[in-house]
Each structure stands twice: as structure tokens, then as C-alpha cells.
Amino acid sequence: DQQVKQNSPSLSVQEGRISILNCDYTNSMFDYFLWYKKYPAEGPTFLISISSIKDKNEDGRFTVFLNKSAKHLSLHIVPSQPGDSAVYFCAASALQGGSEKLVFGKGTKLTVNP
Amino acid sequence: DTGVSQNPRHKITKRGQNVTFRCDPISEHNRLYWYRQTLGQGPEFLTYFQNEAQLEKSRLLSDRFSAERPKGSFSTLEIQRTEQGDSAMYLCASSPPVGQGLTNEKLFFGSGTQLSVL
What we know:
The complex is a heterodimer. By secondary structure, chain A is mainly beta. Chain A has no helices and eleven strands.
């Protein structure tokens, strides 16, 4: 069963506009959420994270929002740049449960058009 | 380059053969992870080491798979009697000791080893 779901396989936006990537999860034990970015032929790189005690975390152009009641999080990129074109993975972990395992979604391929 | 290094980058093998991959983590990182990624999927957790101790294993890690980290530095992942379903990208990641930030946040991935089983 897919505990972390990214229902949009792809997203295309214009340069300068906002990109919104969505993620849903089913496991209520998850207490830490992360976004990773992946370019072709490279491993994923950490982008931004949020603890379940918060509902928003911002880092430059990137903001992650968490809605615990809906078990939903989203990543906002403003303004979007062509260099942001990559596959974005949502991931979750149950840190308080003592597990080091990250559970990833299937990813959303973002294309930012110049 | 002081990032996570994985070798080989690509491996093509015939069904039934054994393969071994190597991962060299960032030198000061004591935590090491193996993940597997198949086409159209996100990375799936396989196993986790803290120093030389293997502390967590996924049920995905069947008895044909074995991972070691003998001296708490580099790690190897061996697959015996490979099957076509083993074809995937095998990713290694490392993270610094607790106290230098939440470990999962500071997961640094290598570029992976792409395995193709014919």
C-alpha cells in the first residue's frame, strides 16, 4: 500500500509563476516530512522539511505547508525558474517511532518553461 | 569531491549471477542507508547502518540480499542469484551523527548503481 502519494506524475508551469506540488499520506505515525529534488543521473538532494508540530516552513523561494487533519502537504515554489525542472519526491518518516526509514512518494516531474 | 560515492555506476548481469555494489559515504558520516528505486517509483528503503551495526532492515531485503559495513566506513550490497525483478537503481545515502541536525533531514545520496538483469 502506498503510504505517501503524489497523484500528479507531472506539472508544467511558466517561468516566474508559482509551482504547487502536492502530497498526501495515510500513516498517522508520520511526524516529519521532507521534499527531495532529483535531476537525471543524480541521486536525490534534500530541499526542505517540516515537522508535524508546524504547519509552514519557508526557505527562500520554497515553502512547505502541512495540513495534519487532511494528511496533506504541499510544496510551493515562487517564482519558478527553469533550473527548478526536476522530479520532486515527497517523503515522510516516523522519527518518534525510532525508525530511520524514509517513505517516498512516486514523484512529480516539474517542467518550468522559459 | 567529498560526496557519497557509489561503484559501479552501471552493472549488466545475467539472471542467476551474483553482483556486489560498493558505497563510500561522506567521511564523517556514521549513518549509512541503502535504497532501491525502480522506474516510475520513489526510492524504497532497504537497510540502515549506524557505524558497523545493521540496525534496520526492510522486508524487501530478501535472503538473496546481504549488506555489510565491516569497519563502519564503506558498505557493500550483494545480491545473489539475481532475478530480472532485481533490475533497479540502488541508491546509497549517508548522514552525520545525531546532534548535528535531524538525521533524515541531512540524508546525502550518491548517484546510484543502475543494475540491469538480463
